[in-house]
Amino acid sequence: VLDAQAPLSSAHDEMLFIIQHQTSELWMKLALHEIGAAIRSIRADRLEPSFKMLSRVARIFEQLNNAWDVLRTMTPSEYTEFRDALGQSSGFQSWQYRAIEFMAGNRNLAMLGPHKHRPDLTGRLEAILTEPSLYDEALLLLARNGFDIGADARRTDWRETRSENEEVLVAWQTIYRDPQRYWMFYELAEKLVDFEDYFRRWRFNHVTTVERIIGLKRGTGGTSGASYLKKMLEVVLFPELWNVRTRL
To answer: What is the tally of helices (H) and strands (E) in the chain?
Structure first.
């Protein structure tokens, strides 16, 4: 690990940039490990272990949020000293980030595009899409316990991006109105919200860090930079869990 840094320029701050991305990938590897275990636990109706795993995922993204503060110590002038040396390299190419999105429930197939030059990675991502996501498993759990989840109970193609569902919203509403009766489902819901809360903050900090360092320039990976990242802020992983708050 300590020998994995290979700067392409003589710029002092390139080491910071490299380590920021490498450590983020390590934390994402752990996040994938925990999310996968949480999915399996929920599928097996073993909710208590999943609570610990999802709490850890939230803490991982808290750690990743704090890491942006270190990268923000780099100024635009310092970044321009090595930006050209990066070529087309970009955080946009992180397949693990895509995997987290897919496993959580954001199944935007267009996100496979940046990895089409790597059939091995595309294969791993497509394999994730053949299985229910974290949120899918939470909804199937509700169905097994007598809640009406409407169209989500009839889904067979897990690659499809699910639409917000009124029946699911009503199911969560029932749970939130009587948490003592439905404590395990209530606790699961709050663990999912904790995870997405920190994940949203991570996205937001990504946007502000990019704006602070490169402004509105295009990203090295060919995206529109901060403008692209701002669009990602609109993506909600567990929509009914946020909208149920308006109903209470």
So the answer is: 10, 0
Phi, psi of 59 (to 5 degrees): -65, -35
Residue pointed to by tokens 């509105």: 216
From residue 33, alpha-carbon distances to 29, 57, 61, 75, 243 in Å are 6, 9, 14, 34, 29
Contact 199, 53 (CB under 8 A): no
Using 50, 70 and 90 to split pLDDT, how confident is the model at 31?
very high
The whole-model pTM stands at 0.92
Reported as a single tens digit per residue, the pLDDT across 216-245 is 766 555 555 567 677 778 889 999 999 999
Residue-range domain boundaries for the chain: 14-247
The two three-digit tokens of residue 75, written as one number: 């100024």
One CATH from 3.40.50.40, 3.40.50.880, 1.10.760.10, 1.20.58.480 for 14-247: 1.20.58.480
